[in-house]
Design a protein that fits this description.
Blueprint (H helix, E strand, L loop, with lengths): L13 H23 L5 E4 L2 E3 L5 E4 L2 E10 L13 E11 L3 E4 L5 E17 L2 E4 L2 E7 L8 E14 L10 E10 L11 E3 L7 H14 L3 E3 L3 E3 L7 E7 L9 E2 L3 E2 L9 E7 L8 E4 L13 E5 L2 E6 L6 E4 L2 E3 L6 E2 L4 E3 L8 E2 L2 E2 L16 E2 L15 E2 L17 E7 L1
Parallel strand pairs: 28-29
Antiparallel strand pairs: 1-4, 2-3, 3-6, 4-5, 7-10, 7-11, 8-9, 11-12, 13-30, 14-19, 15-18, 15-30, 16-17, 18-25, 19-20, 20-21, 21-24, 22-23, 23-26, 26-27
């Protein structure tokens, strides 16, 4: 921001103080524009209460930020002062006491307006030096006792009308409330007063809303490898990783069919971790793939600054441990979670000698395991679920494939 400079021993001028005032006004206006945006109107205070005896409305004290200009008219004078300056900026206007307005009639919709303007106030008889005799002071200009205003202030006047009034020079008109007055009403008892869009939440209210929103928003789902930048406002991140589901084993045939085992479900890790928007390149995400053809599912993990925060291994594939026996895949392990580390669900066994079992896949966190199927196991359908085993085949010597596992996933949500 700009600041006035004065020097020891120099003769002070009125413009020294006037320039300092303008610099402060410009700095305040720029700050207001940064907070609310340029050309935005914002009201604080200015609450209302409707009369139960007549059509009057009392508007409490308050302030408004709204578009204006530096100075519509010269400020100071009598051989000094500063000329008018029509530079646009956000200005503050204040109502220091409550104001009461009466609505013009009934059977119509009226708006309560704040007419914002700058006025010169606080007239005082000031002492001046006599230019021809500097040792002698005068009461007012030319010693005539006339008072001069010593304060330029932004003020608010409240009016109620069906149509907006004209804006004063260098000022503006702000709509505060809208009131639909029923035909024949004698008071404002029971009449709804609708606030305008100028009543913004305060910064503490916005901070609370942001925190509530961050804590209640659903987590974002990531289903492919990549990276996620850390927002400037975040200090923590909530993460959940699910490993890929394993694939089931196929049905084998020699002189008869043998049922395959189901694939295991992926592990599941969940936690909250500290992060910083100024450190590192964000979160590096790896999503485990679903296992195919009796294979184990891939590992899902999240790393930050080169360190793994948490990971979930994929479920193992179903296998034949002998020519007449098949076992379901073991669920994947999980580690690094601060809320939980849950191993995945194991797949069902398929066959043990003459005994035949279900061979269903292991469920993921949201179910979706593939069931065993005739001449081909069913595919898993949810993140981290294992595929279903196969039983029976079209002919001896022909194999039927087991179902493949579903891929893993990563979920995240940044927190303040």
């Amino acid at each position: 921001m700009d600041r006035a400079i004065v020097y020891a021993g120099s003769i002070p001028l009125d413009t020294d103080l006037l320039r300092a005032g303008r610099y402060n006004k410009a700095a305040f206006g720029n700050l207001a524009s940064m907070l609310y945006g340029p050309n935005v109107m914002s009201a604080s205070g200015l609450g209302y209460s409707g009369s139960t005896a007549d059509l009057s409305l009392r508007i409490d004290a308050g302030s408004i930020l709204a578009p204006g200009i530096m100075d519509a008219t010269p400020i100071g004078g009598n051989g000094g002062g500063l000329a008018a300056d029509i530079t646009s900026l956000t200005c503050q206007y204040v109502s220091t006491a409550s104001q009461t307005v009466t609505l013009p009639g009934t059977g119509n919709t009226y708006t309560v307006y704040a007419v914002c303007s700058e006025q010169d106030a606080d007239p005082i008889v000031l002492p001046f030096f006599d230019a021809s005799n500097p040792s002698q002071t005068q009461a007012g200009i030319q010693n005539n006792g006339s008072a001069l205003p010593v304060r330029r202030t932004g003020v608010i006047s409240i009016v109620a009308a069906a149509n907006p009034p004209s804006a004063p020079a260098g000022g503006c008109v702000v709509a505060l409330y809208t009131i639909a007055v029923p035909q024949g009403a004698s008071s404002l008892s029971g009449v709804t007063v609708q606030p305008g869009q100028v009543f913004w939440p305060t910064i503490p209210e916005l901070a609370t809303q942001a925190l509530l929103k961050a804590c209640t928003e659903p987590m974002t789902l990531v289903s492919a490898n990549g990276s996620v930048p850390i927002p400037a406002w975040a200090s923590r991140v909530e993460l959940r990783v699910v490993g890929g589901g394993g694939a089931a084993s196929q049905a084998l045939t020699t002189v008869s069919s043998f049922s395959g085992g189901g694939g295991g479900g992926g592990g599941d890790a969940w936690g909250v971790y500290s992060v910083s928007p100024t450190q590192g390149n964000g979160l590096a995400i790896t999503v485990g793939s679903g296992g195919g053809s009796e294979q184990t599912g891939g590992t899902s993990l999240v790393s930050y600054n080169g360190q793994t925060l948490l990971q979930a291994e994929g479920g193992q594939g179903g296998t034949f441990y002998s020519s007449t026996g098949s076992a379901g895949g073991v669920g994947g392990n999980a580690s690094g979670g601060t809320i939980w580390n849950q191993n995945g669900t194991s797949g069902g066994d398929g066959q043990c000698n003459a005994y035949t079992f279900s061979g269903y896949g292991g469920d993921g966190p949201w179910g979706g395991a593939g069931r065993c199927g005739n001449q081909g196991g069913r595919l898993a359908t949810r993140y981290g679920a294992g595929g279903g085993g196969s039983y029976s085949a079209t002919a001896d010597g022909v194999s039927s494939s087991g179902g493949i596992g579903f891929q893993g996933c990563v979920l995240y949500r940044f927190l303040p």
